[in-house]
Amino acid sequence: MLNFKEHLAAEQKKCIFSTFEKTCDWRDPWGCTMFADQLISEENTEPNYKKALNVLNYSCKYGGDDPACQSAKELRKFINSKIKHE
User: I need a labelling partner for 85 at 20 to 30 A (CA). Which of 20, 42, 52, 76 fits?
Assistant: First the structure.
């Protein structure tokens, strides 16, 4: 989702992670969708698929047509495909 991250310093990446984590703590749908994306990012040596699936439960607060929910559904499909191959 965030392709520009490859050009960021480690401290900037931590800030992005913390920001999405905090907004998800507040149950913001986009915050949770983006936090889930961070949890399974290729940059993580150990992607946390279980936690990502859990936080995606908050992404559809405003219904299935909400863009945060639509992105969450795609992310959930991706995670489930990864889990099946493990």
Answer: 20
